[in-house]
Amino acid sequence: MRYQISGRQIDIGEALQTHVQTELDEAVGKYAGRPTDAAVIFSKTGFEYSCESTVHLSTGMTATAKANATEIYASFDQCREKLEKQLRRYKRRLKDHGRERKQPVESFGEPSYILAATAEDDEKEPDTLQPIIVAEMETKVPTLSVGEAVMQMELSGSQLLVFRHETHNGVNVVYRRDDGNVGWIDPRSNGR
């Protein structure tokens, strides 16, 4: 597995890097067949250390976790526990999807934009209807089944996931509803 262990405006020593590699190998190795790479980022805000980890699996799925603690090793250990819990919860489903899928998950690069927030003053009429683009980047849009998309959304901890449906290659969305259930938007399935 490839590792990218870094710190945002803090130095990461060799001992911490070795600890992270050893612990992640053990934790991820139990539940995921062949993880391909992992990124672990440490940062410090005030008196608290933050650890964010992202593990990319050979099936194309991605698991992420984040934790905060007053010590840097404790922040990583909590983050690893969260990651391990996610992988343990989805172990059976990860293995089941891996058997059905003949090829790894295919992802397409699509443009993604961050738009500037509108002014708080609702009474003021905007000068133009064109939004101000703050940032532009490429986002990976995976080709998945609906079940895999829900699992990927859960593993990443996000509120929604845009994906291409593996049977008809159309763009679909799964999202976390306010009532805790998962919603699925499939523009092609309008009664056909």
TrEMBL record:
Domain of life: Bacteria
Domain (Sigma 54 modulation/S30EA ribosomal protein C-terminal) ranges: 130-183
Signal peptide span: none
Major place of residence: cytoplasm
Location within or outside the cell: Cytoplasm
Transmembrane regions listed in the UniProt entry: none
Coiled coil: 73-100
Keywords per UniProt: Coiled coil, Cytoplasm, Translation regulation
Family indicated by similarity: Belongs to the HPF/YfiA ribosome-associated protein family. Long HPF subfamily.
Function: Required for dimerization of active 70S ribosomes into 100S ribosomes in stationary phase; 100S ribosomes are translationally inactive and sometimes present during exponential growth.
Assembly and binders: Interacts with 100S ribosomes.
Protein name: Ribosome hibernation promoting factor
